[in-house]
Structure formats: C-alpha cells, structure tokens
Amino acid sequence: MAIRNRTTKSVAKRHDLDYFKKGSPVRLWQWWLTLAAVCAAVLWLGVSVLRHGDRMFSAGPMSSAHAVFGQKCVACHQPVIAGAGWLPVFGSSKRVPDSACLNCHAAPAHHPARVAFTPKCGSCHIEHQGSMRLASVADVTCTQCHADLKVRSGSLSVPSGIHSFVNGHPDFRPLQGIGDASREAAFSLRFNHAEHMKSGLSGPRGKVDMRCSDCHRTPNDASSVVWRFQGAPESTPQMKDTEFEGTQATGAVSSLAASARMVRVAQSARPDVHAGGAYMKPASYQQTCRACHTLRFDSHISAEAPHADPATVQKFVVAEIASYAVTHPQVVANEIKNWQGMSDIAGRMPWPAPHTPQEWIAARVAHADRLLWRGKCSLCHQITGGEIASISSRAVLRNASLEVSAPASISAADQAALPVVAPTQQPQRWFADSVFRHDAHQEVQCAQCHANALSSTTGKDMLLPSIAVCQRCHDGATRPQGPPVSTGHAESGCFLCHQYHGWTQAAMAVEGQPHRVFTLDELTSKR
C-alpha cells in the first residue's frame, strides 16, 4: 500500500486565497436582506411617529390626575437641546423641570432653609406608571434623607435613623413629652369615660348603654345619622362651642394651641385631606351632654340656663326668676308665707326666709347659682372663686320694683366676685403633623385603638393609641398593589400619614408666578 506524501505547503495550496475578494449569490442576498430590514425599521418608525406622535416614546400611561395632558406632552416636557424639539427621536427626548410642575401645583417647599438636600419633583412623583395618586410615593423617597437626616444649620427637631414605619420610627409626639403641669393646664375639662360606659345609665328616655359613637362622631355622621340622645331645640340663647374654649396657654400648651392653629390653616388649604370623614367632630355640650345633663336651675322655670360665660348665665337666671315673680305674684306670696327653705346643696346653709318679693327673688337666684356653679357646672368644669349669693342679692335688690327683670349690666364689684371657669385648651387634633382618617378604620372597634378609654376616670388621661397599636396592622409586610395576605396586614407607606410639602404655610402660591391654565384646543392637540 502506497503512502501519500503531503506537506503543509501542498495542503495550503488547495485553498483559494481570493475567496473573500469574489462575490457570491448568497452573500449578495445577505446584504440586500440586511439593508431591507434596516429600511423597513426606519420606515415603520417614521410612520408610527406620524400616526402616534410622542406616544411612541412614552414610558407608560399617565396618572389619573394628569390624564387630561395625555396628548399634550409639551405641557410638562421640554427639549433637552433648546430649539431642537422639531428633530425626530432626539429632539423628542425631553426633560421635566420643577418649574413645569410648579406652574400648576404651587406646592410649598419642604423646610427649604434647613434640609441639606431637596429632590426634584419627578424623582418622587414618577409619571407614566398609570398611578391613581402621584402622592403615593415609595418609602425610599423619604428614607433617603430620614435614614440619616442632615440639616444645614442648627440641631435636629425631628428624629433621624427612620428606615420605615416599623424600623426606627419613634412613638407619636403627643405621647412623648407632656409633663404634669402642662397636662393640668391643657385638660381642664373633667370627664369620666369609665362612668359613662357603665351599663344601665339613666338617660333622657330611661336606662341606656352608651356607645363611643354617641359622643364621638365625624362631621359626616353628625349631619347624616340621627343622634340617639339629641336634645330638644334650643329655647335659650346659647354660646358657640368655640367661644367657651380658652385662648391663653403657656409652655407646652401654647405649642399645642399653635399646632391647632396651623392645622386650621392646613384645613383651608387642603380640604381634600381634612374631609368630613377624617377626624372626629369636637364633642359639644349642646350635642352630646345636654340631653342627659340639663341646666335647669329652678323648679318653677322650664327654660335652661345657657352654656355660656358666668356673666351671661347670671343675667339670664336673674331675668327669668324676676320675670316669673312678676307673672306669678300669688305663688311668690304663698312661698313667702310658708317658707320651707332651700338647702338641697350639700354644705350650704339655707337661705333666710324672705319677707318681700325682692328678697324672694334674691333667695331663688342664690339657690339657682349654687345649683349651677357648685353642682352641675362643676361636674365638668373647674370652678374657682366667686360667691354668687351676694351678687344675686345686690343685683336684685338694687331694683326698686319688679318691672325690671334683670340688671342691664353687672357692676365691676359683681364681675370680680363671679366664679372663674378654667378654659378648655385641649387641641381638637393631636397629630398635627400627620394625616389620619377615622372612616378608613371604621371596621375596627373603637376600644381596639383607644383601649384606655374604658377605664379612664379623669380628663387628664392621654387616650391616644401608641405607635405599637398601629404597628399591629401596619407592620410593613404588605406593599402597594401587593398580593393580599391572610393575616390582614395593612400598607405601611410614609405617604399614608405624612405630607412632604409644608401645606400649613399661609403663602401657598409661588411668588410672582401665576397659575397656568390651558385652552381646550391646547389640551386636545397632539403636540
């Protein structure tokens, strides 16, 4: 058998070294097909731009609040290269500066003089994700600063190291630093929750078992649901609830009052946040107390004393009793003749027997004053000073006849002798720096959050839920639009309770920059 003798040189000669210099039908088709694909892609892109405009480059659907601008991209976006907006693709790549947002949303800054970093609007409120609310921002937009909060100058007034609601968040501020002295000044109203929650209390229509909603109701419920213990229509001049609240405060109490004032500004600025179902309507005497705790002051008179300041009450009582004496002289004469005394007020000596109608009026007024101020009013209010009996006798006996039913005014001496009612300075809202809605928690029993109310015997108790109560449901286990969990965990995002912008500032508009408005043609045009 012969052996082939091949060398490397002989093998190399078998390859055509000019192969890549020569064309072939296969290679020619490859080039044509590649060129055709590129041309088709460019043609498709051009036709799509002509038919769909900027929507071709949109990252996703607009939020519900900005859906009206779906065809008007230039309302928010500005060309990256000034004057190059006409260029396809590159010219349509646009940015959204903060000024585009502030044209419509005059949002106050977030502590601009103190924080070391202020993010852009679009870095927190991310569009083109189809969000229902752009305010529902991710926690990272807050914790990027509050996890290690820095300020430009001064010391921190809020805690740092907050990573989430369940990691580093401190307890609520009203539960942290109110001392006994400040608490005494703020909670002058006496109220015993435990006593009112007992079974079989005497109500206006027999025995009753009270519920939390009998006194604590949202404005929506107060206007739409019949109150179980609604009192009769007013027959006497009454004072508005807010007029009987104190206006002077010191120390921690003044800061609470200042917070309440800021909240009222925020309510006018952001009515959507403080809607009628968010917070409880302040409990008032007229709506929640009067049906059971009447201010009847004389067995002969059906009218009730007004829930007002001492001077107003004093004038009303004197006028009513004197008027009764004028219209019922025979009754007055019989009682003077058969005087039984009036010593039903514990610890008070009986009024001496009267000899004239004027003295009879003075005795009835003194008895009424003792009954009201030392009996009924002191159940809820702190009463100090005053000796109403002497005021009553002087005010009545100054009148020579019974034609004048009440003195036109109270003298300075009588005014000084009137009792002093401690003002009620408790804020209507405690969580002044956060947002909360009771109607969103209506499926939860009141006592689950306000457990201490069932055993509270004084108005000085703080009955607010602690952060641990909230964390039982808002435990960070559920994310927005996340899958439901069998344990019923609730979302725990920062945006649920906090607002980034300082809506409590009085000046809401951007200085020198009017609100931007659009015509319908502008909104419906594609460019």
Global geometry: elongated
SS element count, helices: 18
- What sequence of helices (H) and strands (E) makes up the elements? HHEEHHHHHEEHHHHHHEHHEHHH
Q: Going across the major beta sheet, what is the strand order?
A: 1-2
The parts where pLDDT drops under 50 for at least 5 residues are 231-274, 389-408, 506-512
Main sheet overview: 2 strands, antiparallel
Class from helix and strand fractions: mainly alpha
Task: Give the SSE map.
Blueprint: H1 8-12, H2 25-52, E1 78-79, E2 94-95, H3 98-102, H4 121-124, H5 140-146, H6 180-186, H7 193-196, E3 201-203, E4 206-208, H8 219-224, H9 252-269, H10 285-289, H11 310-327, H12 329-337, H13 357-376, E5 383-384, H14 388-397, H15 412-417, E6 420-421, H16 446-449, H17 467-471, H18 520-524
Antiparallel strand pairs: 1-2, 3-4, 5-6
Helix pairs in contact: 11-13, 13-14
Structure commentary:
The structure is a single chain. The chain has 527 residues and is mostly helical. Helix content is 31%, strand content 3%. It is built from 18 helices and six strands. Strands 1-2 form a two-stranded antiparallel ribbon. β3 and β4 form a beta hairpin. It is elongated. The protein starts with 7 loop residues before the first helix and ends with a helix. 14% of the residues are buried. About 13% of the residues have low confidence.
